[in-house]
Specification:
The protein has four helices and eleven strands, in the order H-H-H-E-E-E-E-E-E-E-H-E-E-E-E. The protein is α+β, with helices and mostly antiparallel strands and 201 residues long. The protein has two domains: 94 residues, no CATH class; 72 residues. Strands 1-2-3-4-5-6-7 form a seven-stranded antiparallel beta sheet, covered by helices on one side.
Length: 201
């Protein structure tokens, strides 16, 4: 009788939780942790920078005064890198996603709780599905004749506050004393504005 009552209470507790027992078991979970021992051993001043055979150039910083640990990693011959953020207390992965040259975030970004369970997924590409990165890359290469690895070429994207329109913003410096730019409506793929501004010394 006592065993049956105990089982009933446990079952009831599981059902009372917001997530439920089955939902917790079925949730995506990460076991990735930040190697703080290695970080503090090799850190120079405020950061630790090193080369990794898989990740490429890795830059880690944070952890001071309770702040989270942050990691940027990107290979030299790749346009996109990986951003990771770790909880200070547990060292478990908090956030992970891909970025383009530190200009904008791309693809699916995931956020985990301190126990490693996935609690949020955000699709950074959602507003730009009508004119995605692949089309922008083709436009830059074929129409503008620009090299994406040229440090003078910058690509960003944002939601225009005045009209709530997703916009691709491309700038480049052809060494003529001006910064050239193109704005593209990501809903239609049409060029909104194109021009150049004088560089002020």
């Amino acid at each position: 009788m006592f065993a049956a009552l105990t089982l009933l209470l446990i079952t009831g507790c599981c059902k009372a939780q917001n997530t439920g027992c089955n939902n917790i078991k079925n949730k995506e979970r990460t076991t990735e942790r930040f190697d703080s021992t290695r970080y503090y051993t090799h850190k120079q001043r405020t950061e630790y920078v090193f080369e990794d055979s898989i990740k490429g150039r890795v830059r880690q910083f944070g952890g001071e005064n309770g702040s989270e640990f942050v990691e940027y990693a990107r290979k030299d011959h790749e346009l996109f890198g990986t951003y990771k953020e770790y909880y200070n207390k547990t060292k478990t992965l908090k956030k992970v996603g891909r970025y383009y040259y530190n200009q904008f975030n791309i693809g699916l970004w995931k956020r985990y709780d301190e126990n490693g369970y996935l609690i949020e997924t955000i699709d950074k590409d959602a507003p730009y599905t009508n004119y995605p990165w692949e089309k922008v890359m083709k436009f830059v290469k074929e129409q503008l004749k620009l090299d994406l690895f040229d440090k003078g070429v910058s690509i960003n994207r944002y939601i225009a506050k005045d009209h709530n329109i997703p916009v691709w913003f491309i700038t480049w410096n052809p060494c003529d004393g001006k910064i050239h730019f193109v704005k593209i409506n990501a809903n239609t793929g049409q060029v909104i504005e194109q021009g150049a501004n004088e560089i002020i010394e």
